[in-house]
Amino acid sequence: MTTPPTSSEPEALLAVRDLTITYATRAGPVPAVRGVDLTVRPGEVLALVGESGSGKSTTAHAVLGLLPPGARVDGGTIRYAGTDLAAADESVLRAHRGRAIGLVPQDPAVSLNPVQRVGSQVAEVLLLHGLAADRDTAHARAAELLGEAGLDRPRDRARQYPHELSGGMRQRVLIAIALAARPRLLVADEPTSALDVTVQRTILDHLDTLTRTSETAVLLITHDLGVAADRAGRVAVMARGRVVETGPTDEVLTSPRHPYTKALLAAAPAFAPARRTPSGTAEARDGGTPAPAPADLLTAENLVKEYPHRRTGRHTPPPPAVDGVSLRVARGETLALVGESGSGKSTTARLLLRLTDPTAGRITFDGQDVTRLRGAALRALRRRLQIVYQNPYTSLDPRLPVAEIVAEPLRAFRVAGRAERTRRVAVLLDRVHLPADVARRRPAELSGGQRQRVAIARALALRPDLVVCDEPVSALDVSAQAHVLDVLAELQSEDGLSYLFITHDLAVVRRIAHRVAVMRHGRIVETGPVETVFTEPREAWTRALLDAVPGRGRSAPADD
Amino acid sequence: MKRRLPRTLAQALFVLWAAYTVSFAVLYLLPGDPVTIMAAGGGDASSVSPEQIAELRARYGLDRPVPEQYATALWNAVRGDLGTSVHGGQPVTRLIADALPATLQLAGATLLLALPLGGAVALLGTYTRRRWLRQLLLSLPAAGVSAPTFWVGLLLVQLVSFRWGLLPAFGNDGWSSLVLPSVTLALPAAGLVAQVFAKSLRTALAEPYIDTARAKGAGRARVHLRHAARNALAPPLTVAGVLTGGVLAGSVVVETVFARTGVGRLTATAVTTQDIPVVQGLVVLGACVYVTTHLVVDLLHPLLDPRIAATERPAVTT
Amino acid sequence: MTELTTPPRTRAATPEDPATAKPAAPRPGTPSRARRALAFWLGRPGLLLSAALLALVLLAALFPALLTSRDPLAGIPGERLLPPGADHPFGTDQLGRDLYARVVHGSALTLRATGLAVAVGLVAGSLVGLLAGYLGGRADDALMRLADVLLAVPGLLLSLALVTALGFGTVEVAVAVGVTSVAMFARIMRTEVQRVARTPYVEAARAAGVRWYTVLLRHVLPNAAAPVLVYAAVDFGAVVLQVSSLSFLGYGARPPQPEWGALVASGRDYLAPAWWLTTLPGLTIAATVLAANRIARALDGEARETP
Fold it and tell me: What does the pLDDT look like over B85-138, one tens digit per residue?
């Protein structure tokens, strides 16, 4: 514990050596970080990349001495400018937190104190570390800092409460807090994962500028290789509590040495090759006019959905959630519906599934007008039109075993007897590459990727023609993502399924879709074959979305 | 807030009306003839002569159709006339007004004891790092809410008054007679406040913004008081509102135990003698207390949480 | 993998749960089910004691003869107001009746009234809440306004008003107390039904073509029931207190029937000479309520841990 910093790393600002952290759980201690070595030099950006559960966040929090209850540092050192923070007492840690090491936390929605004005929250750092003579100067300085972090009208903003700001603005406040005391090291824990890509990009750009001008070193924790590629000089890849590979970003991304890094890169949608050329029918006709053609399975014409606004409150009614959407999905085709949060893409999906009724417009399915279908006819439609939800943690009834969940549509339509149902469930689980014994387990015992495949199996039980996938992989790690996407593609080629694929992630679109429709403010702004839209976007908004994708512009590593 | 006030007031009036109506329905329309019940006064119903019953029936207007009875009673209630007691014949409002001051003293003293006590136990119990102190402080509230008030009251009388001879056991004479009853009522009240506050403090302490505050370099005390406690105040405030009504109800037991006069004693007597107009008056009083405290709590909440001030709250919430 | 994404934020240690503060088995790997159960109970002596006490009370209510051979109603004139001792563990009352036997036999009356009251609240409240939550709209508004009004009158006052109308007696008291908890049961059930009805798995069932009543019975009700049942456990302790308060005030069982609250009330006249007459039955009530609350809290915690 008392070894002085070795001479081989004279300039290290932060040196983590052989760090071991365990969580105490009911089942006994679980190691989360197992002998991690990390070095951050002054002014550099080091990205710590890994999937959930790799221990990257735990490592980051250990640097600040902010481990969650139950976690304990079992060994190793965390040297910041010569002081071992792993062995330091609370008062030393307190002097370092905020002053020497700033933290940008994960989720801006919940990381600000909801009952305090944001200006005071920034000023608190200055007052705590004696960087302002009195309250007034602290508050004045806080407003300046908010301005530096990129908030407009910082003086007014300082007097606002967190709930009055958007997610991106809250993250800027958190950046202002983290940088208020001009720390030499910034720990950014997935700083933009909860934000839309366009917002993510401007915020990361801004953070770049700020830290570069003040020569602040950054330890950037991220699951997104694209973000790491764009922002970091060096990358450390973490898996199962260990750093498996570390080196300059270009080197690690272009010629990864460790098998895990290779697998991660292969799975990452941002670096993955585009889908093979899709079947001709869909590509032949460009988007735009949704004239129903025989091959079209599903069409929508001028769909509008308005939500009744409250009597009290707003004076002007809010714009419709969906405002004149027309689209079509051909047999055997995947149409991706892309947009940021609030663009109306999920509402469109719910309209098409007839889970909610449109205010205006027309929906046809296999040539039949289904816009106002009710009762038995609607149930008959449901057999052919299924859905896979975004969050596999909430879309499966936690009380039922997997076999019951997958068999539910069969039961609902009394398709098969008990024995036949069991047999079909086994087949379905096999088709989504799940082992047979999963049938007896409950959702809580499965990983996220496994659960999502259970949801896919359920959607396939009735052999539908079209499956609506509502952000099916956004809650999953990249390797699980890749697996689910592969399963979906395989099922399509075997059964000729059509997919309507709702997503915010353009990288995923490139991997799975034939055609893409870009939504914004409840309208479709551009539609066409994926390659066309991606290489020659016609609309400025599409271009902005594409530019914001992290890791874009970097060539994919050689496939091996 | 200005826009909310009329709506909150309308809701308050609705609750009062509904409480009156429900109690009218329960007391006058349930099986069992109210006149017979009242005339018997908790005694044997067969001892009442038919003439007495007819006379009572006419006096209370119970020989008229129910809607008319209700309309008359409601109109009278709106004008502040809640009828007269069956036994003794005084106006109900008079009886309540006479009993109220003593009970208000009791309620005030109880809340003054309970809120700081409960708050302090919760704050200290969640703050201290000494395991034994933490365990002790956080298990006290459970004991407080589990002990029957009548039993705690009798224990206090036994020990403090009889054995040690420190304070008067019974009656309404002066402040010294107020101590034991208010302590008796304050113990479970403080227990409830402490339980709710400790729970909301623990929830607040697990929020990510606490990590943000700690990452700024704030010390434990500052994080606890300025960040966690501020955010954890809403639930105990709501409970404090509910407690005011609870103290009123608790006074029924406590005033019986300590032989004090007051609303609680009036209630006990009215129920025992099945004096229906008085009981109904007391139910309406209970609803009034609820509505008033609720109004105050409702107006205080936005001061604690700016998010409430910004948005309209949907429907009636308690 | 995913277990570690949400670091096990062990809830701040509560005094009754030393096991959460100090993780049990130090060796890795999952211990056997029996050993885990053993560790669970040994780590919570308070819970163990509570369970044992409630079991004892239940035994007293069902088979009082197993715990005492004395007659709760027959007094021995020569043994009036004897303090607790080897012969009479709780002492004797002013008529020479054995207080321990009276407390044991009284548990039947108290528990019966409590059970009835909780059942009234649970059944009526759940039904109202289920209807309100599932139907929504006007039915929801009307039912919940009614529940608000019930909550507006302090519980004890409301049950006193009901007792006035219904008359005195154990069953009447039980019904009156039960009515006061209807509103809370209704609210919890409604909230749960609405929460579950909004979950994607319910929508997924609808999208899969499952009929609404099947959705209600197969998905909504089972997933909404747990918190309501937990509240029934929470309510149990409060109801014991209310029932004994009403019988203390003299509206419950008629003397000479032994009922816990009534026992305390009748001991009031001998407060100075015979402390045990009030203290010991009261202690029994307090201990029972404490034990019930402790168990309710354990159920509450477990319900939250297994989503």
Answer: 887 788 999 999 999 999 999 999 999 999 999 999 999 999 998 989 998 998
With respect to residue B234, please indicate whether it lies within any of the assigned structural domains: yes
pLDDT at A472: 87
* Domain assignment of residue B268, yes or no: yes
Q: Is residue B134 part of a domain?
A: yes
Q: Has domain A296-307+319-547 been given CATH number 3.90.105.10?
A: no
ipTM: 0.85
pLDDT tens-digit series, residues B14-63: 889 988 998 888 887 766 666 666 666 555 556 667 777 777 777 777 77
How far A386 CA sits from the closest chain C CA (Å)? 7
Q: Do A112 and B312 touch (CB under 8 A)?
A: no
Which chain B residues are closer than 8 Å to C144 by Cβ? 315-316
Domain ranges of chain A: 1-100+183-267, 109-182, 296-307+319-547
Of C14, C244, C297, nearest to B148 by CB-CB distance is: C244
What is the count of structural domains for chain B?
A: 1
Chain C segment 90-119 residues within 8 A of B by beta carbon are none
Homologous superfamily of A1-100+183-267: P-loop containing nucleotide triphosphate hydrolases (3.40.50.300)
Residue B189 belongs to some domain of the structure: yes
Query: Which C residues in the span 192-211 are in contact with A, Cβ-Cβ below 8 Å?
Result: 199-201, 203-211
pLDDT band at B316 (very low <50, low <70, confident <90, very high): very low
CATH of the domain at B108: 1.10.3720.10
Instruction: Using an 8 Å CB-CB cutoff, list chain B residues near C18.
Output: 135
The verdict on B130 touching C (C-beta cutoff 8 Å) is no
Q: Greater confidence, A277 or C175?
A: C175
Q: What's the mean pLDDT when you consider all of chain A?
A: 86
Instruction: Please report the pLDDT score of residue B169 as a whole number.
Output: 79
How far away is chain C from the Cα of B148, in angstroms, using its nearest Cα? 6
Q: Stretch A252-274: mean pLDDT, rounded?
A: 78
Say which of A105, A116, A163 has its CB closest to residue B211: A105
Residues in C closer than 8 angstroms to B130, CB to CB, are: none
Instruction: Check pLDDT > 50 for residue A403.
Output: yes
Q: How far apart are CA B129 and CA B227, in angstroms?
A: 18
If you average pLDDT over residues A374-394, what whole number do you get?
A: 87
Asked whether the predicted pLDDT for residue B318 surpasses 80, the reply is no
**Residue B150, domain extent:** 92-272
Report chain A residues whose CB lies below 8 A from the CB of C207.
Answer: 353, 355, 382, 386-387
Of C15, C146, C237, the CB nearest to B138: C15
The two domains A1-100+183-267 and A296-307+319-547 share their CATH topology (first three levels equal)? yes
| pLDDT value of residue A526 | 92
Q: Which residues of A touch B213 (CB under 8 A)?
A: 113, 124
Distance from CA of B314 to the nearest CA of A (A): 10
Q: What is the 3-state secondary structure (H, E, C) of chain B?
A: CCCHHHHHHHHHHHHHHHHHHHHHHHHHHCCCCHHHHHHHCCCCHHHCCHHHHHHHHHHCCCCCCHHHHHHHHHHHHHCCCCCECCCCCCEHHHHHHHHHHHHHHHHHHHHHHHHHHHHHHHHHHHHCCCHHHHHHHHHHHHHHHHCCHHHHHHHHHHHHHHHCCCCCCCCCCCCHHHHHHHHHHHHHHHHHHHHHHHHHHHHHHCCHHHHHHHHCCCCHHHHHHHHHHHHHCHHHHHHHHHHHHHHHHHHHHHHHHCCCCCHHHHHHHHHHCCCHHHHHHHHHHHHHHHHHHHHHHHHHHHHHCHHHHHCCCCCCCC
Does A319 have pLDDT greater than 80? no
Contacts of B207 in chain A (CB under 8 A): 110
Q: Do B208 and A128 touch (CB under 8 A)?
A: no
Low-confidence ranges of chain C (pLDDT < 50): 1-29, 303-307
Average pLDDT over residues B130-149: 91
